[in-house]
Amino acid sequence: xTSDFSLRIATEADIPALHALIEASVRGLQAxxxxxxxxxxxxxxxxxxxxxxxxxxxxxxxxxxxxNAADRKVAGCGGWSKRKTLFGADRGxxxxxxxxxxxxxxxxxxxxxxxxDFARRGRLGKCGILPRHFCRGVPPSPLFLTEIxxxxxxxxxxxxxxxxxx
Length: 166
Known about the structure:
Order of helices and strands: EHHHEEEHH
Distance between the termini: 26 Å
Strand order of the largest sheet: 1-2-3-4
CATH topology: Aminopeptidase
Radius of gyration: 16 Å
Structural class: alpha+beta
Number of strands: 4
Largest sheet: 4 strands, antiparallel
Helix content: 25-40%
Number of domains: 1
Mean pLDDT: 78
CATH class: Alpha Beta
């Protein structure tokens, strides 16, 4: 954790703020990769909030640290899943609420979104504190941890490449 952000488990009270963050992230950071029609079609289905992660207490949010709670801003969110659903929001395709078997299945890193105001600083998303924080809650199973370690390896490689390409 850095001095700029605090991390905590997301709650149902955070759902409206998380929806707003995810929409801002997708519309602001993916506009160069997708058409507006593709973005609108993906929001709320493929890209969106899976509230099962909140109920499972495996979804986190990063918010700015301000003395006054009203001045705090949600800067990013993300989590991991112990369920068979691979991706997507509550209304997404292929929902599989069954639990994974830690002996045979790897946990899934899920739904990392960063608000455009806090993007590309190497502090929250793939290069930052959100993925590392997920490991604190992952059950001690080699397969569950393999998914997290693979994600971290890919993220570090991509972060190094993006720093060298500037």
